[in-house]
Amino acid sequence: MVNRPPAKIVRGMPMLGPFAENWENVEKFQARPDDILIATYPKSGTTWISEIVDRILSGEDTDRSQRGAIYERVPFLEFAVPNMPTASIAYRVTFYVKVTWVLFGQDPKAAIREVARYIGKDLSEDLLENITQQTSFDAMKKNEKTNYTTVPSSMLDHSVSPFMRKGICGDWKNQFTVAQNERFDEHYKREMSNTDLSKRFLF
């Protein structure tokens, strides 16, 4: 059994110590016009896109992106569905760029260039090549600044499962039985038939 630090109660809600200790800062937070929000589903490339954005913003200063672990360089908030902000907050932002995980896997240079263009940064070919190489799955898996090996084992035990596993799309099918795969494929086809997402997502 994993020993977890005791929760602290903040306004009637249990939180882990570091979150509770910083809650006052969260409540006082004021976004700046040039802040960038990265929103992803769990285990869908959050660390990857965070590292890419940080390297784009660092520009030619490649040492800047090594100033600390990714979770120290990119502030991180986690919401479960019951704790999501109200619609008046979450749906009134209109400046989005949507880049699929699959595009990053198929053509990382094009995806990185698209993100850079969205945040108003021009990348030289040399810098684009450098970012592409340094944010490849293999490079990030070996980099202690991005692979979460600096996190204490009491919070993340890499002997049980490394934070960065395979870096491939569609491996979930290997965890399903044939019948489960067939049910999912049928469900996906039915639910996505009236959208254009089925053309961009490869499962």
Residue runs with pLDDT of under 50 for 5 or more positions: 87-94
The level 1 CATH classification of the largest domain is Alpha Beta
Count of alpha/pi helices: 10
CA radius of gyration is: 19 Å
How does CATH name the architecture of the largest domain? 3-Layer(aba) Sandwich
At the fold tier of CATH, the topology name of the largest domain is Rossmann fold
N→C terminal distance? 34 Å
Whole-number total of structural domains: 3
Protein architecture, described:
Residues 33-80, 106-195 form the Sulfotransferase domain. There is one protein chain. Helices cover 39% and strands 4% of the residues. The protein has helices spanning 17-21, 23-28, 46-58, 70-73, 87-90, 101-106, 108-118, 125-134, 137-142, 178-192; strands spanning 7-10, 13-16. The protein has a two-stranded antiparallel ribbon with strand order 1-2. The radius of gyration is 19 Å and the shape is globular. 11% of the residues are buried.
